[in-house]
Amino acid sequence: MKVFFKLVIVVFIGLGGTYSFAQTNLEKGITFYNLRAETHEGLVVDSANINQAINFFQKSIELKENNEKAYDYLLLSYYYKGAFVARTKDEQMKNYLMGTSLGEKAIKLYPQNPTILLWYIANFSKYGEAKGVVSSAKEGLADKIKTYTEKLLELDPNFADGAPHKLLGVINYKVPYIPLFLTWPSKEVAEEHLIKALKINPKSISNIYFYAEFLTEVKRNTEAKILLEKIINASPREDALIEDLYDIDMAKKLLEKITK
Question: Residues 93-97: contacts with CB within 8 Å, 24+ apart?
């Protein structure tokens, strides 16, 4: 009899241990998200892990496990899939549109969450870019992105390596100035914000790249070349491998373009 009770206790403890280590859908999603670049060939990334991550984050939201964080990661995952996994423009736009639609809901639920706001803006910006910068500007998308980016700047100007400043810099030099219609884009304002982003994190490959790209836009190629060489010689982060490899590849292409 004593042996029987000992066995019951051992089994109970074993089950208790199993339950204590059971992962939530959110945790499973994060595990797959962290493995998003596990299988890739150059910049071509396999979709399996990011698709698994998206599925688990969606389940987490459906089950109301930890919605705020699940929205964070789901928006980020749609952006990542659109930018680095999708093979066609239609597939890219589909993911950016999913991120935009979800983001519009999420920013209303969590208006003070800078991560949710950032990845809503990122998806929305990429969707507008894929649609066409001029047509997006005329449809009012550029104004909306600017408004939300200014809100992100108010929440935390230093957030994510100075992302609010970088975004404001980018939209000010990429969005066209259209007389009597779109008059706020400014190269001077763009440089001001891009420099601020670099001051917040001067080692950020993304911050360096966008300032270099801006410099080529204003025909300051000598300055741009120095920054582009710096990017090309940089080591990509292990936890953002594809993101950094993409910027390094873009830097190589831009340097080749301005040295012809």
Answer: 93/127, 93/130, 93/131, 95/123, 96/123, 96/124, 96/126, 96/127, 96/130, 97/123, 97/127
